[in-house]
Amino acid sequence: MVISLLHYAPSAAAALLTIYMALGRGVKTHRIVSYATAIAASVGLLGYLTDNPTNLLLIEFHSIHAWIGITALTLSIANIFIRGKHRRLHCAVGRVAALFSIVALLMGALILLGRVPIAGSDVANRQFPTSSKLPEVEATTFMNQTLMPISQQNNNAIVGMQVIDRATYRLRVTGLVERNVTMTYDDLLKLPAYSEVAYLPCVGGWGFWAKWTGFRITDLLDTAGVKPNGLYVMFKCADGYSTELPLSYVEGNQTLLAYGLNDVTLPMNRGFPLQVVADSKYGYKWAKWVVEIEVRSDPKLGFWESSGYSDSADVGSPPLR
User: Fold this and answer.
1) Which end of the chain is more exposed for a tag (fewer CB within 10 A), N or C?
2) Same domain, 131 and 65
């Protein structure tokens, strides 16, 4: 759920090259620059489709941004073949491509700065007591909200899907607690269960509505007893991934660790046995395959945060530091 450099870097380079060609005079390497522009734009499009394969079908800011970029690419490629006797047309098409490139650059900058609201992410959280025994029949709606089918939900992972055995799984609570706690999967199902409808927003522009069922992290922490200097909660995952949230956020938002998705047991590729439901946070805070919770006194950057992503991850704020 991260910004794809394979998309943004080549696309930005292609846009700048297009603008340079349209505004430049007497460019001796015009043909070479044209080919370089088409190649960079094509790589950028490949990066977009790899990171976000369904977004082109939506009518919202990110998909409009994508189509504007694709239009600029199409014009740039077409312009390679418009030469010789069609000089005027060649120049006109180049200027139009540059105009689309400028718009695409500005829209991309707004996305990177977190100035574009992600659809559905501003809807208030709705959480209700429920049973930990799931129907195991996938729900299509919940609280008048249409849910994204699990088969259509995009998914990112740093090293691929983790396969965890329910029988041998253990969740550990460590760090600044009165006592370390180790709980089996069945132990976790005995904690008070809640369901909520929430939107998972990826910084890449896509996201989905889903029904999440699980237990409140605070109920788990209460069994361990958080020490007074415990201020942060670090989630460690089976694949080596990690991210953290302030304890104040976890308490204030009644944050869930979910074992159910759309009324079925969380599938292995979606993070079984547990995924963090970090309302109003970008997707890289929604840790999957959670195996340990460490309570800390000081903040510690997680996997993507260590690579320059914002530690706050608040939707609407710049995702990069």
Assistant:
1) C
2) no
Total domain count, the chain: 2
Q: Which of 245, 253, 244, 247 is nearest to 226 (CA)?
A: 247
State the DSSP string of 186-238. HHHHTSPEEEEEEEEE-TTS-EEEEEEEEEEHHHHHHHH-B-TT--EEEEEET
Cα 79-30-71 angle, rounded to 5 deg:
30
Residue 108 DSSP symbol: H
Contact between 147 and 262 (Cβ < 8 Å): yes
Helix or strand run (H / E) with residue 128: strand 126-130
Q: In this structure, what DSSP letter does residue 321 have?
A: -
Q: Of 60, 79, 112, which marks where a domain is finished?
A: 112
Are 166 and 273 members of one domain?
Answer: yes
**Residue 231 CB-half CA count within 13 A:** 5
pTM: 0.69
- Give the domain extent around 217: 126-307
pLDDT category of residue 36 using cuts at 50, 70 and 90 = confident
Burial class (CB in 10 A: 0-12, 13-18, 19+), 42: middle
- 134 with 215, same domain? yes
